[in-house]
Amino acid sequence: MIFHTSSHNDFPAGRKQFFYRSVLILALVLALMIISCDFSRTKLDASDPVPVTYWWERHAAIVNELAGYDESVDGAIDILFIGDSLTQMWETDGIDEWNLLKADYNIYNLGFPGDTTGHVIYRLYSGEFPDCIKPRFVVLLIGTNNIGFGYPVESSAKAIGDIIGIIHRKSKNTTIILMPVLPREDIPVECRRKILDLNDAIKPYENLAYVVWFDLASHFTNAAGGIKMELFDHSKLHLSPLGYKLWREELVKLLV
């Protein structure tokens, strides 16, 4: 499976096809997100667990693999990445950096394209974080799609806190590396301001003894307040290989 550090060095062709099919579906949604970030979802709870049909194949594969995970045989997981497409694309645009991480750490990728906090909560409750795994670190990056889909900042911040709570209840000794939502320029200015508000709202979670605040977002912004274009691909949302290089280099400084 692609999720285990020792399984494959390349993103399998079948998974690539699945990923790009998912991206095609998401493109229609993202086109709407560019127009407005104030949809009817503003009245919904960002903590509501929600499954998504287009990622069901990936979800089922992860659940199947982790259900039989044996740390005495496979080794403890050093880093479990949880998030949306930015996290999943370690396996595509960031594959070279992913392989460098794999050389030193036992790592798993639980990133899914298009995910909001509700999707992550569903996945964690539905087999993607079984009792048999106790990762040393969880890297959590989620929330950009909440803003794009119009979820309120307060509800999204609470949902991120709920995710932190789920992880901690399942694995008391895991250190949760919480990342602020990264900047993006594919959505209106008012949406980008909400990203800043969301980051301010989740930063106090660093006061929890098992949470570390990983302020990678500041590295992706230039002096004028815009994004550093070389760190992003043409979407102005997803990262370039240089973006993943920076993410890896800054992350390993925390893994002590």
Structural overview:
- Helices cover 43% and strands 9% of the residues.
- By secondary structure, the protein is of the alpha/beta class.
- It has one domain (13-251): 3-Layer(aba) Sandwich (Rossmann fold).
- The longest helix is centred in the first third of the chain and has 23 residues, at 13-35.
- A 5-stranded parallel beta sheet has the order 2-1-3-4-5.
- Residues 1-16 and 23-35 have low confidence and may be disordered.
- The chain is globular.
- The chain has helices at residues 13-35, 56-67, 71-74, 85-88, 95-104, 117-125, 144-148, 153-170, 189-202, 241-251; strands spanning 79-83, 107-111, 137-141, 175-178, 211-213.
Low-confidence spans: pLDDT under 50, at least 5 residues? 1-16, 23-35
The biggest beta sheet, please?
5 strands, parallel
Amount of helix: 40-55%
Give the strand line-up of the largest sheet.
Answer: 2-1-3-4-5
